[in-house]
Amino acid sequence: MRSWANMLRADDATILDWASRQPWAAPMRACMQDAQWHAEGDVWTHTCMVYEQVTRLAEYPDLSRQEQIMLLLVALLHDAGKPATTMLDPETGRTRSPKHSLVGAAMTRQILRDLGCDLPTREHIVRLVRYHGRPPYLLESREPERSVIQLSSLLSNRLLYLFALADTRGRHAEEMSRPEETLHLWRDTALEHGCFNCEYPFANDHARLLYHRDELTSLHYTPHEDYTCTVTMMSALPGAGKDTWLATERRGLSVVSLDAVREELDVSSTDNQGQVIQTAREHCREHLRAHRSFAFNATNLTSMLRRRWIDLFLSYHARVEIIYLEPPLATILRQNKAREASVPESVIHRLLAKTEVPTLSEAHAVRLIGG
């Protein structure tokens, strides 16, 4: 399986055979699980059982081939993070794998990137892996409908529900902590709110953003979209082409660039960045106070880092769009090497590993532009 195109042409048995020979499968075979919840044994055994249950879903034949492959890949990778996170709970003596879905999501992104999977499909699969454990615990949520509605902006609730069925059926458990009735409740809640097969129909982009930020308490309230300006936030690795994209797609737009601020202050990227950040924030405020649209150009590779800047922009009632660029890694490395202030390749790889691709939960608009 050398490419995403080959994956799309492969049958179910071929995909499973390919997965069984991948380097990430061996640690799963060696990783045992808590016998009370997974009496079937190791993670790979459970993975294969879930894979088979995906193909047995009554809805499986009605899915498009791409949707089938997405579910098959979620089955193969949903617990791929367990070998790195499995531990014995010192209080109970039980085996636990805290945050394995986060680790698995990062692994999934790298595996699919290497296959050349297109960016939107890749990130959809990554988010299904990241949130695969949500449906069984819907009743434990303080606001069940909020969980279902928020996730509809990130993934298909239908695919998430179907995978949850397969995940529940693909195990032997002494105690059934995942009754299918709860999974049906996830489906029914999504259907009730019109977001089983599509994103929840928010009144507008601002309503969606406020809802994801837990700042909108009623779905019946329609916030005004009276923006003072638009901030275009760039998000990409060094050398990905942020400057070129802005020069082409946002010609004439004012730009606040962290690289430019460093040059202005004669501060290296390896020096303390406190003064750089403070100066850049003041440059942003100057535009915001003047109600002048501008671009904020920095790597902005994690949601936490982006949130700090977006909080500033929203406090001035700006509309925020995020542009995420991801050309092939070879292109990034080549372009980075040609830059005057190039970054060591080791840093590029480190940043790539920690990258969190932006989602619609973060801004009024998000564009993912792949190579």
TrEMBL record:
The keyword Metal-binding does not apply. Gene3D superfamilies: cca-adding enzyme, domain 2 (1.10.3090.10), P-loop containing nucleotide triphosphate hydrolases (3.40.50.300). The keyword Nucleotide-binding applies. SUPFAM superfamilies: HD-domain/PDEase-like (SSF109604), P-loop containing nucleoside triphosphate hydrolases (SSF52540). Keywords: Nucleotide-binding, Transferase. InterPro entries: HD/PDEase_dom, HD_domain, HDIG_dom, P-loop_NTPase, tRNA_CCA-adding_enzyme. Residues 43-137 form the HD domain. GO terms for molecular function: nucleotide binding; transferase activity. It holds the Pfam family AAA_33. NCBIfam families: HDIG. This is Putative nucleotidyltransferase with HDIG domain. It comes from Prosthecobacter vanneervenii.
